[in-house]
Specification:
Structural class: alpha/beta
Strand order of the largest sheet: 1-2-3-5-4-6-7-10-11-12
CATH class of the largest domain: Alpha Beta
Strand content: 15-25%
Order of helices and strands: HEEEHEHEHHHEHEEEEHEHHHE
Distance between the termini: 87 Å
CATH architecture of the largest domain: 3-Layer(aba) Sandwich
Number of domains: 2
Number of helices: 11
Shape: globular
Largest sheet: 10 strands, mixed
Length: 371
């Protein structure tokens, strides 16, 4: 009998030990998942939250330290009124690791009901920092015609003549020769990394918000419309968009002041264009835009099954991003997404209606194919 009692006590002990292990494992799982939950660390309002009906906020989230989030301040109110919120993935000009250059545009777009995941960690973006970024390209220095522009920093946003280009090339060559002579015999230093970000960061952000949407404890739980995802990039960021545009989760792409042309950059090349599967918007600054020829090259290579709109303005490579609420480029971005992601057919007028274009944007040139 005593042995039988001992056996019972032993079984109880084993059961208790197993229960403790199970509880410990469950606690570890919960703790691990909590680390991944969205958790706002910093936040700021840019330009009074934009002009849209859902005032926006820019957020730094502890569980997504590589990105900055722009979204409506009251996300639940937006979803209650409209349904789940669409997503915009954004890659920066120069493939930079901050979204300062586009902070006004992204804040403005978010105020119209979009959740924006922009490459680059959170950083404060007060107006003085923004204007420092754009000290050479204040819109007021453009002539009314916008046929030419010399910026405050001396940058010229019109095409140079062949003689001017030849002189620039000669000056550059002379400088290189002088530098080579000065550094003769010195040990060459390794070249710095050309970019600080990589294209897949857009997909990593999409993976993150997908996980948040499915996590009952997340503030984003069941608020995100994962069937309505756009990707956008400016300049080098446009190449990053082309590098990931094959992902079936992406439903439309916006290539601003960019195009791959004959280049290979940030994981994209002209061969990448064969992987496109969504409607595309190309928006460039016209002949003064260094990406103008690249955009035209892409236009000729994109397959006949891919709907494309290409718009050329007179704003050069810097677009209107430095204007209040990012000017006309922000309007084009949110109207395109309203049409492509939200199905607001009336907002397609900017891209498909010649009379509308001539009336409201007479200085812009529109091309479209495969619609």
């Amino acid at each position: 009998m005593p042995n039988f009692v001992k056996m019972i006590d032993s079984n109880k002990f084993l059961i208790q030990m197993k229960s403790k292990k199970i509880l410990a494992l469950a606690a570890a799982v919960i703790a691990g998942s909590a680390i991944c939950l969205a958790q706002t660390q910093q936040a700021q309002v840019i330009e009074n939250g934009g002009t849209g009906p859902y005032k926006s906020v820019a957020i730094g989230d502890e569980s997504l330290p590589t990105h900055m989030i722009y979204r409506p301040q009251d996300l639940n109110a937006y979803v209650k009124e409209n349904g789940k919120i669409p997503v915009l993935l954004y890659a920066n000009g120069a493939c930079a690791n901050n979204s300062l250059e586009m902070s006004r545009l992204l804040s403005e777009v978010a105020s119209w009901g979009y959740l924006v995941l922009a490459i680059g960690p959170y950083m404060d973006m007060p107006d003085d920092a923004f204007y420092a970024q754009w000290k050479g390209v204040v819109r007021g220095w453009y002539p009314d015609t916008k046929e030419y522009a010399i910026m405050g920093n001396g940058e010229r946003l019109t095409p140079y003549t062949e003689a001017e280009l030849a002189a620039q090339a000669a000056e550059k060559e002379a400088a290189q020769k002088a530098a080579a002579k000065k550094n003769k015999g010195k040990k060459a230093e390794p070249a710095p990394a050309p970019f600080h970000t990589y294209a897949r960061q857009m997909l990593e952000a999409l993976d993150w918000i997908t996980d948040q949407d499915g996590n009952l404890q997340s503030e984003y739980y069941h608020l995100i419309d994962l069937e309505k995802v756009a990707a956008m990039g400016q300049s080098c960021g446009g190449a990053q968009v082309l590098a990931v545009a094959h992902d079936p989760r992406i439903k439309t792409c916006m290539i601003f002041n960019s195009g791959i042309g004959e280049m290979a950059m940030s994981g994209a090349s002209k061969e990448t264009l064969a992987n496109l599967h969504t409607p595309m918007l190309y928006l460039n600054g016209g002949v003064a835009d260094v990406a103008y020829n690249n955009a035209n090259g892409d236009w000729g290579r994109i397959a006949d099954c891919i709907p494309v709109v290409k718009i050329s303005t007179l704003d050069g490579h810097h677009g209107t991003y430095y204007e209040a609420h990012a000017g006309a480029y922000a309007v084009a971005a949110r109207l395109w997404m309203n049409w492509q992601l939200k199905g607001i057919v009336g907002d397609s007028a900017l891209f498909m209606n010649e009379e509308y274009e001539k009336t409201f944007y007479p200085q812009w040139t529109f091309e479209r194919k495969n619609w």
